[in-house]
């Protein structure tokens, strides 16, 4: 397996740290005048999503992680796994709850999303930044109240609960920012 | 194509103005400006410094990591106090505060020791910054006690590793030797918290580099470093004049290099011969000019102080 020396570190590089695949977010070279040089690195553990600080002696090497990110089509959930398909090869991948995490709230069949594969297995799923989903449940809309503020919770077809303006009704489609979980706009059908 | 300088024209003008002020400062103090070669067959043996090798018709040469050896040969030849502004090169040092090629102002004052030289560094910086700054002076030992609660003169390696791991989480300190732990604490814990100009002096003798050992306390070296807001600006010594001790330090460096799997470097026999003939007692200091510009102009990165940097894209 290939490895990377600290002088090759840059953001986005995928390496193995403490047996887990990680992505380098930031890398800073630190050296006291005549002393030992270090690389202070901020990394994201791609399995847990946690962000950690690590310090390495400059010149050390880390094993490269076989991590690729592929755009895939979400197919369905069988109750245990979420199934995705590579659009070109039609190859299918099954991701478990650990890999999907909170992203399941935004997964709608046929939508495209980014699946992170580590040694060929899914370890992460990133939905598109914006998704359009049906409202399946919410309190009755207040007619005419289209301008003023005020929100109410609405349950979407994927199970996500989002705050929406008071005038929206069951069956309407909303556009949501999946990074913040916030309502963006109503989508005209 | 990004062909423009990485420093602004204002910075480039400021650099020129500073060089004029530096020359006036040293001229008034009766220093001789000198100019020594950048290429040499020998180089710095320090295990923490990577020399850049160049070849010329199969002859191995090195770009200087500082002008120290050549300037000391001038001192031994009777030059009197000398200074120079020159480029120096250190491989594998690239980052926000480091560039492989950088500019040093280095000077040697005959009959001075490191304490007197710190006064002169203050006078120079006050001149260049056109104001009277306040400077703190603190011993290396007291600094680490104050900021990291570590007394290097009274701690076992195992305890030091434990303490370092605690203060810098995410570090495999079992891989670090005693001085590497101290370096870790200094760069990660202490330096980021320093404010204003701070001289750190009386380094552990294991980090003496080319400094004289203190006559009354053999566990410390007469070495100082100047920081500003945690950024290291200068490194100075009461210079080691003993040829025999100097040879032993070079040899120890090379042994350490070999144990770390690094190439051993040719020792500068010209310097040792000069020391044997006799170099006057003196103190010397190297000041990073690019970093001093960063401080004076409040620049965020060394790139903004240097006219052109040539880096691999994305690094």
Task: Tell me about this structure.
The complex is a heterodimer of chains A (189) and B (315). Chain A contains 1 helix and 16 strands. Chain A is an all-beta fold and 189 residues long. Chain A has 3 domains: 3-63, SH3 type barrels (Roll), CATH 2.30.30; 67-126, Nucleic acid-binding proteins (OB fold (Dihydrolipoamide Acetyltransferase, E2P), Beta Barrel), CATH 2.40.50.140; 130-187, Nucleic acid-binding proteins (OB fold (Dihydrolipoamide Acetyltransferase, E2P)), CATH 2.40.50.140. A 5-stranded antiparallel beta sheet of chain A has the order 9-8-7-10-11. In chain A, strands 14-13-12-15-16 form a 5-stranded antiparallel beta sheet, with no helix packed on it. In chain A, strands 2-3-4-5 form a 4-stranded antiparallel beta sheet, with no helix packed on it. In chain A, a hairpin with a 2-residue loop joins strand 10 and strand 11 (121-126). Chain A is elongated, with a radius of gyration of 21 Å. Chain B has 315 residues and is of the alpha+beta class. Chain B has one domain: 2-Layer Sandwich (BirA Bifunctional Protein, domain 2). Chain B is built from 9 helices and 11 strands. Chain B has an 8-stranded mixed beta sheet, sandwiched between helices. A 3-stranded antiparallel beta sheet of chain B has the order 2-4-3, with no helix packed on it. In chain B, a hairpin with a 2-residue loop joins strand 9 (220-228) and strand 10. The radius of gyration of chain B is 20 Å and the shape is globular. The two termini of chain B are 17 Å apart. The mean pLDDT of chain B is 96.
């Amino acid at each position: 397996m290939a490895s990377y020396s600290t002088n090759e570190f840059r953001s986005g590089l995928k390496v193995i740290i403490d047996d887990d695949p990680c992505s380098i977010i930031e890398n800073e070279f630190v050296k006291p005048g005549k002393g030992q040089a270090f690389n202070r690195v901020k990394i994201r553990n791609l399995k847990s999503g946690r962000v950690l600080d690590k310090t390495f002696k400059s010149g050390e090497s880390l094993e490269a992680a076989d991590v690729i990110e592929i755009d895939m089509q979400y197919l369905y959930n069988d109750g245990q796994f979420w199934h995705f398909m590579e659009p070109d090869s039609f190859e299918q991948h099954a991701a478990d709850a650990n890999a999907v995490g909170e992203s399941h709230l935004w997964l709608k069949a046929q939508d495209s999303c980014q699946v992170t594969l580590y040694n060929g297995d899914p370890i992460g799923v990133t939905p598109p930044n914006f998704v359009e989903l049906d409202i399946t449940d919410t309190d009755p809309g207040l007619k005419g109240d289209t301008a003023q503020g005020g929100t109410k919770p609405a349950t979407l077809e994927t199970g996500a609960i989002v705050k929406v303006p008071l005038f929206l009704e069951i069956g309407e489609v909303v556009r949501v920012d999946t990074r913040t979980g916030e309502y963006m706009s109503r989508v005209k059908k | 194509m990004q062909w423009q300088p990485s420093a602004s024209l204002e910075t480039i003008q400021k650099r020129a103005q500073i060089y004029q002020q530096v020359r006036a400062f040293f001229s008034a103090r009766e220093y001789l400006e000198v100019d020594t070669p950048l290429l040499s067959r020998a180089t710095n043996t320090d295990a923490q410094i990577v020399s850049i090798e160049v070849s010329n018709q199969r002859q191995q040469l090195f770009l200087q990591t500082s002008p120290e050896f050549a300037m000391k040969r001038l001192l031994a030849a009777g030059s009197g106090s000398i200074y120079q502004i020159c480029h120096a090169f250190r491989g594998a040092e690239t980052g926000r505060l480091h560039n492989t090629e950088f500019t040093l102002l280095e000077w040697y004052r005959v009959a001075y020791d490191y304490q007197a030289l710190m006064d002169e560094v203050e006078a120079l910086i006050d001149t260049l910054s056109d104001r009277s700054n306040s400077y703190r002076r603190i011993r290396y030992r007291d600094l680490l006690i104050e900021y990291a609660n570590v007394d290097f003169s009274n701690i076992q390696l195992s305890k030091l590793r434990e303490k370092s791991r605690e203060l810098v989480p995410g570090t495999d300190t079992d891989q670090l030797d005693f001085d590497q732990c101290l370096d870790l604490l200094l760069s990660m814990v202490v330096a980021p918290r320093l404010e204003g100009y701070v001289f750190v002096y009386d380094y552990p003798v294991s980090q003496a580099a080319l400094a004289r050992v203190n006559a009354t306390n053999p566990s410390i070296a007469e070495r100082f470093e100047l920081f500003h807001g945690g950024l290291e600006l200068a490194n100075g010594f009461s210079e080691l004049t003993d040829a025999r001790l100097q040879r032993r330090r070079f040899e120890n460096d090379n042994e350490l290099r070999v144990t770390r799997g690094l190439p051993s470097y040719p020792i500068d026999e010209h310097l040792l011969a000069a020391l044997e003939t006799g170099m006057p007692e003196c103190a010397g200091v190297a000041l990073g000019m690019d970093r001093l510009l960063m401080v004076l102009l409040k620049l965020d990165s060394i790139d903004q102080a240097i006219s052109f940097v040539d880096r691999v894209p994305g690094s």
